[in-house]
Amino acid sequence: MLKVHQVTKRFGGLSAVNEVSFSLNEGEVIGLIGPNGAGKTTLLNLICGLYPADGGSIEFLGHNITGMRSNRICHLGISRTYQIPQPFYAMTALSAVAVSVINGKRRPNMSLSDAALEASYYLEFAGLFAKRDTISRDLTLYELRMLELARALATTPKLLLIDEVMAGLNPAESSRALEMIWSAQEQFGITILWIEHVMKIIMSAAQRIVVLQYGRKIAEGTPQEIASDPKIIEAYLGGRYAKNQ
Q: Environment class of residue 207 by beta-carbon count within 10 Å: exposed (0-12), middle (13-18) or buried (19+)?
């Protein structure tokens, strides 16, 4: 479904992403992990078209999307959530999701009433239907994260990019968010590329893990393989810890 080949992104003299390659198969959940500053979010920004790549290529469903505008990539079937929620703060939750319905499906002639009806379905799925008339800025962090998910799903993606949906959530909220993502994959048949720092969650949710450090891919494998790899232990906990294992 997705092929990332030797992708590179530089900011001045810094290579935030350096010749990274990996692929996703349809229906997979792939975890993307690494220390802060490893290039994870930058890689998602390259895939969804927010940044242009400085090298390499990205292919999605047979289309070369390298350098393609983000709205066209969305129409092909890639959507995302953000680590820091990006709602339309002055809009109600219902209106915010309706915008995604219209733009994601590339249906500019769709009536607002039809868009609102479809948006209600995604709000209900995300557990936010009761908050449909609430202004986005008045939602809690958990509700904002679920609004992000509802908006992303409303574009009818084939591939969903998730960026640290658990950040700032308490354990109960994290469990609810995980159940929501599992339900989304089952109900909508989506493939997921997921950045997450909560190792317990990503190791239980993903079939494969890709590890970045200083912009480079340093490992890829099953959660069990990654959890026992000394390079990964060193990347997260330091060389002294790795030598003592």
A: middle
Residue (of 167, 237, 161) closest to 198 by Cα position: 167
pLDDT digits (tens, 9 = 90+) for 231-242: 787 776 554 434
CB 195 within 8 A of CB 44: yes
What pLDDT sits at residue 245? 45
Instruction: Tell me the C-alpha to C-alpha distance, in Å, between residue 138 and each of 125, 143, 146, 228.
Output: 20, 9, 14, 43
Has this prediction a pTM greater than 0.85? yes
177 three-class SS: helix
Give pLDDT, residue 241: 37
DSSP for 49-117?
A: TSS--SEEEEEETTEE-TT--HHHHHHHTEEE--SS----TTSBHHHHHHHHHHHHTT-TT--HHHHHH
Distance CA 63, CA 82 (A): 24
pLDDT at 237: 52
- pLDDT under 70: residue ranges of the chain: 106-108, 236-245
For the chain, domains (ranges, CATH) are 2-89+155-243 (3.40.50.300)
DSSP 138: G
Question: For residue 239, what pLDDT is reported?
Answer: 47
**CB-side neighbour CA atoms (13 Å) of 40:** 26
